[in-house]
UniProtKB/TrEMBL annotation:
Keywords: Glycosidase, Hydrolase, Metal-binding
Chain ranges passing through the membrane: none
GO molecular function, one term: carbohydrate binding
Cross-referenced PANTHER family: ALPHA-MANNOSIDASE 2C1
Name of this protein: Alpha-mannosidase
Signal peptide from the UniProt entry: none
Pfam annotation, one family: Glyco_hydro38C2
Residue ranges constituting the Glycoside hydrolase family 38 central domain according to the UniProt record: 270-347
GO BP terms, alphabetized: mannose metabolic process; oligosaccharide catabolic process
Protein family: Belongs to the glycosyl hydrolase 38 family.
Length: 825
């Protein structure tokens, strides 16, 4: 028998640091597996080993430094091949775009600094699906190639397993889908696997890769593996059965330049249940991502303006925790229960570092604002035990906006005030609202609307007893019975079900919904394992929450709130429907006490349009998907638009959220997935009374309904979703002289399509890094200004393009574009 093609044999050791074990066990296994790989390199002079994940190398460096030196020598020799370029093999749908950027930044720089090389091949052989923006993220992280395994051929048909993968901006990588698993255990014959791939290579007209080595819990290539390969080489020739690496494979294929199909799509679907498992870790991920970005922005500002040291190392530690918890079996929610207790600790450290660094920066800035009043001679709390207000001159309250555009947002001051004014002395309307405390009669806070500059702050003055003649809210928000109404929307709630009976967009006199909305649908998922293996959708409806109580909590003028409480079996769903004056979105704060098992909760919104189209946010971009009811991963928003019944034009409804990652759309019905309750790490196992079910008990999150006329692209949906996720941050101040004004703008971007996600210290310490991306899928010219640095420049963005700018400290040096690793492009 002859072989006709070169088969590249890839010696690897697939190793989940967390899955059916905790990270401590993964830590130990990584050391043992790396030791085994080094032994094979000594025993077999032609053996080549391939390994990804910077986090693993960091563990070796800190705990087995002598072995780390051996690895460095093997990397220099060219027999230990570094691939992946990321901190870990993450879930490739659920992290934010900025998180993917950080995987490339911290992973590739680690490899460059420790080994003098960067990965050329992206490598996520175990991740469950791959978002459509990855080609651009890979290219801008220094990687031209990609290896993956899922979805397999039963889950997604591809013309070939080797293809050009292209993202919406036009970036391309050469991608290879493994035809068979990344491992060979004792029951699998390497020779049979090689011969099957030789036949596939005949059909495809190009070489194939075959991965071998004991995997999942580490192990890697065995002596028996390499002896079997040696026997094959003796029979078929070393050129045909090649001990190789992904680097060599792609280099040879790129040189051969075969005709390859182009895939311009996401690579899905595998394990659809992983987008909605373990709500707590998903919420912590979203919060941590945004908190660290806010901490970086204001730490940069406090350093620029006031010399506060930038906490680079601490922030990197926090990002490493977040990136580790984005590992696909953690963020995918399919590990053991103990692993999520560890994830809680990791997110807790990251969130705490974020909180402390953000607070230090904000307090440094607010303490340096000139808030002195002529009437104040010295600080004294003679008037009030809580506030520093002197006479009737007010207390300064600093409102910070981390976002890259000016916002007009509701803010709560946690005292009861008689009046509030802005930094120019203009009185603003206020509303007394219930506080979270019940301290005698002291249970009231004060709501007002703040207008705050982009990536900046503004001081508002709060008066305990001095009433200010603010202009009335026109028209005020009204809440009465089962109706909420402001200038833009009228919301009617069905009294007994608690569903939205009508959502009227007064701007277009259009009924947004085609039937009852916010319907809490209970889905049967007894047939699903934790991952949702083998499934496309969750649509086996078995009931609804009902038996509702509707109560008016707040009745304007700035905010109206209806509280709707409904029940299903022993579970209780509380939805606070909130309208703000001046806002065309219905916000909903949700508290769910979930007691169901092997069931899922979705909120249903039938959008009143024909010929519906569904679009969802993906990392640094968006994607249109079929309206076929399949369970999909999403980020901060998804949208259903179409033709209004009996009318011309286009209208739609965007559904925004601050903690959820899954949805489905069937025809015009949009469903947001709220929770599901399999038991932990169930791979269609034997179910007994000792299992523990996921997500039992109370959880809270928020979502918003944003009706729009025309396309979502022209409706500010991306910004509104960020505003739901990144509310303003506030600091109480007192009276002091200071070098800073009472209002400050940190950034100005002329195009509404461009969002700046990150502003941080450059990794080389010689300037600032700002990252932006185009949000609407249309080319954009924009002017960018950083007033505090006296910098401004123009930039042209292609559709969905990510740009990273390096702003040197030396003002004579120009702003330049760099890649995600902060190296020249």
């Amino acid at each position: 028998m002859e072989m006709h093609n070169r088969i590249h044999l890839i010696g690897n050791a697939h190793l989940d640091p967390v899955w059916l074990w905790q990270w401590q066990e993964g830590y130990a296994e990584i050391k043992a597996t790396f030791r085994s790989a080094l032994d094979r390199l000594s025993e077999f002079p032609d053996f080549v080993f391939t390994r990804s994940c910077a986090a693993y190398y960091r563990w070796i460096e800190e705990n087995a430094p002598e072995m780390f030196e051996e690895i460095k020598a093997r990397v220099a020799e060219g027999r230990w091949i570094i691939v992946g370029g990321w901190w870990i093999q993450p879930d490739c749908n659920l992290p934010s775009g900025e998180s993917f950027a950080r995987h490339g930044l911290y992973g590739q720089r680690y490899f460059q600094e420790r080994f003098g090389v960067m990965a050329k091949v992206g490598y996520n052989v175990d991740s469950f699906g791959h978002n459509g923006m990855l080609p651009q993220l890979l290219k801008k992280s220094g990687m031209d190639y990609y290896v993956f395994m899922r979805p397999d051929k039963n889950e997604k048909e591809l013309e070939r397993n080797l293809f050009w993968w292209e993202s919406e901006d036009g970036s391309r990588v050469m991608a290879y889908r493994l035809s068979e698993a990344y491992l060979t255990n004792k029951d699998h014959s390497i020779e049979e696997k090689v011969l099957r791939h030789d036949e596939m290579a005949d059909r495809d007209g190009h070489a194939h890769m075959v991965f071998y080595g004991v995997g999942n819990h580490g192990g890697g290539p065995t002596i028996a593996n390499l002896q079997a390969i040696g026997a094959m080489q003796a029979q078929y020739g070393e050129e045909q059965v090649a001990l190789s690496s992904p680097n060599r494979y792609f280099a040879e294929l790129a040189a051969a330049a075969p005709e390859l199909p182009v895939v311009k799509d996401e690579l899905q679907m595998h394990a659809i249940g992983c987008y909605s498992t373990h709500s707590e870790s998903k919420e912590n991920n979203r919060r941590a991502e945004h908190r660290l970005l806010s901490a970086e922005k204001f730490s940069a500002m406090a350093n620029q303006l006031l010399g506060l040291p930038y906490p680079k190392e601490r922030l990197q530690t926090a990002w490493e925790n977040v990136m580790f918890n984005q590992f696909h079996d953690i963020m995918g929610g399919c590990s053991i229960r103990e692993a999520f207790q560890d994830a809680r600790e990791g997110y807790g450290e990251a969130l705490n570092i974020g909180a402390k660094t953000l607070n230090a920066a904000l307090q440094k800035l607010s303490w340096s604002i000139n808030t002195m009043k002529p009437e104040v001679k010295s600080l004294s709390k003679e008037k009030d035990w809580l506030s520093w207000e002197h006479a009737d001159v007010g207390t300064p309250y600093v409102v910070f906006n981390p976002l890259s555009w000016d916002v007009e947002v509701p803010v709560v001051a946690n005292r009861r005030f008689a009046g509030i004014a802005d930094d120019e002395g203009n009185a603003v309307p206020i509303q007394t609202v219930r506080a979270s405390r019940t301290n005698g009669s002291d249970k009231w806070d004060t709501l007002f609307t703040a207008r705050v500059p982009a990536m900046g702050y503004r001081v508002y003055w709060c008066f305990l007893t001095k009433e200010l003649p603010a202009a009335p809210v026109a028209p005020p928000v009204e809440a009465e019975g089962c109706v909420l109404e402001n200038a833009f929307l009228r919301v009617e709630i069905q009294p007994h079900t608690g569903y939205i009976a009508r959502l009227l967009d007064k701007r277009t006199n259009t009924d947004v919904l085609g039937g009852p909305g916010a319907v809490p649908i209970v889905i049967d998922e007894h047939h699903s394992d934790t991952w949702g293996h083998g499934l496309r959708s969750y649509r086996d409806r078995i009931g609804n929450f009902a038996d509702a109580e509707v109560k008016v909590l707040e009745n304007g003028p700035l905010r109206g709130t209806l509280r709707v409480t409904s029940r299903y079996n022993g579970s209780v769903l509380r939805q606070d429907f909130i309208l703000h004056a001046g806002a065309a979105e219905l916000q909903v704060k949700v508290q769910l006490d979930w007691r169901e098992q092997h069931k899922m909760l979705k909120l249903s919104f039938p959008v009143g349009v024909e010929q519906p189209e569904a679009v969802s946010e993906i990392p640094f971009g968006h994607l249109q998907r079929a309206v076929n009811g399949w369970e999909r991963p999403g980020q901060q928003w998804f949208d259903v638009s179409g033709k209004p019944a009996g009318a011309e034009g286009k209208r739609g409804l965007a559904i925004l959220n601050n903690a959820k990652y899954a949805y489905d759309v069937l025809d015009n019905e949009a469903r947001m997935t709220v929770v599901r309750s399999p038991f932990f790490a169930d791979h269609y196992g034997v179910r007994d009374e000792l299992v523990t079910y996921m997500d039992q008990g109370v959880q809270e999150f928020a979502y918003a309904l944003a009706p729009h006329e025309g396309s979502w692209r022209d409706s500010g949906i991306v910004r509104k979703a960020f505003e739901l996720n990144v509310p303003p941050v506030t600091i109480w101040e007192t009276y002091h002289e200071g070098a800073l004004p009472q209002q400050l703008c940190g950034i100005a971007i002329s195009s509404a399509q461009i969002v700046a996600t990150a502003f941080k210290l450059a990794e080389d310490g010689d300037g600032w890094i700002m990252r932006c991306y185009e949000t609407s899928g249309r080319p954009a010219e924009t002017a960018i200004a950083l007033p505090q640095l006296d910098r401004q420049w123009n930039s042209a963005f292609g559709k969905c393009e990510i740009k990273t700018f390096h702003i040197p400290f030396d003002a004579k040096l120009p702003v330049r574009e760099v890649n995600l690793v902060e190296f020249p492009q």
